[in-house]
Amino acid sequence: MTSAPAGIVHLTERQPQLSGEQMLASLVPPPQFDEATFESYRSDPDFPSQEEAKQQLVTFAVGAPPAKRGGFFSRRPKEPEMKPGVYLDGGFGVGKTHLLAAIFHAVPARRKYFGSFIEYTALVGALGYKQTVDLLRGSALLCIDEFELDDPGDTMVMTRLLGELVASGTRLAATSNTPPNALGEGRFAAQDFLREIHAMADSFETIRIDGVDFRQRSFDGHAPVLDPAEYERELAGLGTASDDTFDGLIAHLAHVHPSRYIRLIDGIDAIGLRDVRQLTDQSEALRFVAFVDRVYDAQLPIRATGFALDQVFSEQMLAGGYRKKYLRAISRLVASTHA
Fold first, then answer.
1. Which of 212, 227, 262 is the last residue of a domain?
2. Does 291 lie in the same domain as 164?
3. I need a surface site. Which of 89, 299, 325, 332 has the fewest CB within 10 A?
């Protein structure tokens, strides 16, 4: 076997490990949201719900401003009580994760956590339910990005976990991605979410955020395909890059728990994929979606040969029950191939 050129690594040769304690320590916003604030959130004037949502979330995070003091006989208006949880309902690419990170940064507490749904379920898997509850109990805030409803078992474990934490005083903020053409213009996901946490529905304020995917506003909507010479030239200029065949990576992902995908790309500056093909197997496609999420969170550029990455999911898949996941992944793949 020949050694890889300097600056090139192969993800298929990595077997990352991640302890429960490391998982807990990693529950912070992704690097691109390290400085996310309400002030830096750019609401689209064509969609007033974005600015309205931001103002509601400021109140949720830091509380309402003090009421003005009137005369001796004036009555101070009673502020409506904010529920202990907020659920951001809307399409992908409208800034929900930015707002979720802004909540995290604005809440004045030491013990607070931010992670994707899969990171929390992985924590339960690694530590066990009781130890996870014990570690998270007493935290001021739990932020859950991309709340999933695909696996009934995981969903019910999470709703039970959240129920115990809310009862102990923890506040919650959650998002879920919904494609613009989904049933009820995105309401379907919110209804499913609230139904699944039937015992906690009254704890959540559902906040609707409309808009157009900001990534599609920035790019032409297509992922560029490179020829082999262009591919090698671009990877050579991107620092430490991975270089794997698409089939090799897809096969390797089946042997790495999704909670460890973030460690799979440790120390990588760019992702290289050769001979991309269209996916037809649902399990392979869902693992690739989870991998794309971690690559996007790490803000790594992707370079590829073969099939265009924005067409990697078949039409049959895009018409199925995981449509929202695939559309989100396509949006992120387009952005990453242009980075």
1. 212
2. no
3. 299
Range with lowest mean pLDDT among 27-31, 216-220, 263-267, 309-313: 216-220
In tens, the pLDDT along 207-218 reads 889 887 665 555
User: Position of tokens 């370079």?
Assistant: 303
Q: Please report how many Cα atoms fall inside a 13 Å half-sphere around the Cα of residue 308, on the Cβ side.
A: 11
327: pLDDT strictly greater than 90:
no
**Residue type (1 letter), 199:** A
Residues 203 and 271 in one domain: no
- For residues 225 and 267, membership in a common domain is answered with yes
Residue 2 banded pLDDT, cuts 50, 70, 90: very low
Res. 131: pLDDT tops 60: yes
**Mean predicted confidence (pLDDT) in 239-247:** 97
Q: What is the pLDDT of residue 182?
A: 39
- Among residues 187, 212, 237, the one where a domain terminates is 212
Range of the domain at 276: 216-338
Q: Tell whether 124 and 220 lie within a shared domain.
A: no
Residue 1 in any domain: the answer is no
